[in-house]
Amino acid sequence: GCVNGELKAPVCNFCNFLAASGEGSICIKANAQSCGECIQVAETCGWCSDQNFLTVGESKSARCDDLESLKKRSCAVAQIENPRGSIVVDKDTPVTNRKKDGTEKLNPEQITQIQFVICKSAIRPEGEPQTFELKFKRAEDYPIDLYYLMDLSYSMKDDLENVKNLGTDLMREMQEITSDFRIGFGSFVEKTVMPYISTTPARLLNPCTGSQNCTSPFSYKNVLNLTNNGDDFNQLVSQQQISGNLDSPEGGFDAIMQVAVCEGHIGWRNVTRLLVFSTDAGFHFAGDGKLGGIVLPNDGKCHLENNMYTMSHYYDYPSIAHLVQKLSDHNIQTIFAVTEEFQPVYKELKNLIPKSAVGTLSSNSSNVIKLIIDAYNVNHHDFFFFLSCAQSLSSEVILENGRLPDGVSITYKSICKNGVEGTGENGRKCSNISIGDEVSFKISIESQKCPLHSQPEVIKIKPLGFTEEVEVVLNFICNCQCAAKGEPKSEKCHEGNGTFECGACKCNEGRIGRLCECSKDEVRTEDLDANCRKDNGTDICSNNGDCVCGTCECKKRENPAEVYSGKYCDCDNFNCDRSNNRLCGGHGRCECRKCICDANYTGSACDCSLETSTCLAKNGQICNGRGTCECGICKCTNPKFQGPTCEICPTCPGVCAEHKDCVQCRAFEAGEKKDTCERDCSYFVLIKVKDRDRLPQPTDQSFPLTHCKERDANDCWFYYTYAIRNDTKEVYVVENLECPAGPDIIPIVAGVVAGIVLIGLALLLIWKLLMIIHDRREFAKFEKEKMNAKWDTGENPIYKSAVTTVVNPKYEGK
Known about the structure:
Blueprint: H1 14-21, H2 26-29, H3 35-39, E1 45-48, E2 64-66, H4 67-72, E3 80-81, E4 86-93, E5 116-123, E6 130-137, E7 144-151, H5 157-163, H6 166-174, E8 181-188, H7 201-205, E9 220-227, H8 230-238, H9 252-261, H10 263-266, E10 272-279, E11 304-305, E12 308-309, H11 320-329, E13 332-338, H12 343-352, E14 356-360, H13 368-376, E15 397-401, E16 408-415, E17 421-422, E18 429-430, E19 438-447, E20 457-463, E21 470-476, E22 498-501, E23 504-507, E24 511-512, E25 518-519, H14 526-530, E26 545-548, E27 551-554, E28 564-565, E29 571-572, E30 578-579, E31 582-583, E32 588-591, E33 594-597, E34 601-602, E35 608-609, E36 627-630, E37 633-636, H15 655-668, H16 677-680, E38 685-689, E39 705-711, E40 717-725, E41 728-734, H17 745-787
Parallel strand pairs: 5-21, 7-8, 7-10, 10-13, 13-14, 38-41
Antiparallel strand pairs: 1-2, 1-3, 4-5, 6-19, 8-9, 11-12, 15-18, 15-20, 16-17, 16-19, 20-21, 22-23, 24-25, 26-27, 28-29, 30-31, 32-33, 34-35, 36-37, 39-40, 40-41
Domain PSI: 26-76
Family: Belongs to the integrin beta chain family.
GO molecular function: C-X3-C chemokine binding; collagen binding involved in cell-matrix adhesion; fibronectin binding; integrin binding; laminin binding; metal ion binding; protein kinase binding
């Protein structure tokens, strides 16, 4: 049912908002003079009805401000007028859970598919939406009225033969969907004037050529009212004859208009209404009637006499927009069963007519039953879904609303099957809804202004194609409740010159002033102006206001956050000292040109913080014990130290080195300060411990601790810790020095001698090893050269034989 749709938008903190954005409150800018005017400015605006709320110099409009600002200005919550809207349910009928096989049979009027409610909404203008919820559930076995409107031009001759048995066949198939089904039949051709038909006497009797026997042309004829008898449908349709016309587009729009508006003739019930429009041609629309000399626009009224449309020659074709309106008004869902050739045209037409579908009609209309059932119910399992039907008529619900009052807007949010949400235009509809599925819609209504009259406005919301509707009665909140308790001609308003309501005077016509004390004709006089001069000066209202009826009304600045105040407008809240370019450093408020600082801040510009947490050093001391904290910043008193907490000392030694001499002289009576120990080293408390394990450890302390290890002139080590606890410096020192023992001479000498001997032996061994290696290399070289030596076997060059042979030159060998 309806739920309270009150939306409480966040109300900004006025002062913080102004500081951040530099803009004033929209409530103050409106300059509202009454509570009623104030609450119409914005949802966040309220009116303080406290009679003593205004200070000297403030105008009546200062009562109107955002809620947080009114509270900060000490207006009690009970005296802040800020009426809120609400929704009250007068009638709430849940959706019907009906079973097809149930024994209980309900009348169509008893079946509710969309939650039927009557809501009364009190709505406040300017941005306060009121939201309620509607539920929709497809009822099983919901009654259906189907009217079959057929083109009977000559090209549909073979189609008529197939339609003659449509009644009983469709009745049988529709039993799968509903037990309460009625069917009707009508036909159309064209306007009965030239040039749409031939007007010769012979052609008027038989418009077909050759031996074809056709009936006289007509515009639209209601053949059969809606009936639950399929045999009557077959019988009457069997008696129909084809007719003819001259042009290709047909006069189907005339027929659709008459089917929609002639409810009584057709027999429509308040159930699902389906109109099947079957044709194989295009259509004429508004303006085409001029070809036949018809210029009067279609009047959208019923003109059936003896079930025939009699004014086709008088009124033009209806426009598409006119058809859309009438089909929607009469909750008729249209199925365009057209041939493949004209699919693109009728698909474009479908996009303009809500809750319509387009199906591909075979050339002889043999598939018309499949087309109708598939278009009605996409989930029916006995038939193939035809590709040309983009949407199922019964599986989609689309909400529409009637005329909205001026300044009223409405938004929808759908929660569809499987939790799918839609907003904007998609928030009006849900698709693919099966029988038994329940979906819901959240509807928000918002008003931007009050109507000129005080009467309630009614908005009707309904789903396309259904007769059920939701009625929302809007009552506008245009005045405050306190106005009803107003005192007309109140003595509080200067001799009854106004009505005292909501803590202020609402002046009668021609009167002005906070108490309506002046007439508009006598606003300025010298005597009255004298009351507006401070200390008998020359400036009226300190030049920051106007003297109205002897009282200063301070001027308003461009930024409403900047206000003049005071009896003489001599105070303001924007001329105080600034810090970091912020008024009063952002830590206070400006009153009469003086900063009133917040807690923990001081100074003329509230720029001095009394908080000391920013001055704490690592050792937990303020400014490390070497400075003072002023306005949250350390001022170091020791010039050697610097930094935000006086912990940095570039020229200082470390803690251990700094205190070494004093610890040494006090603990061991030695060191460089031995003679001046009492004078220079009494600044800490000395505590001796027996060993290093007894020294304080950092993990055991809640204050900083330093461990030190230092060496004296005798090379002895001593250990100590240094810490500051509660402004007391403490030193823990191990009472015994750690001095190195004297050297043992004999082991050292023995070690040195042994080392020299061992080094000598090592050197000898190394020399001997090198010599052996060298000798072996030389011997190997000799052996190699010996093996490679070769001896020369030639004669001795100085050898001479002892034998001498002499030959007789005269010897001839004889």
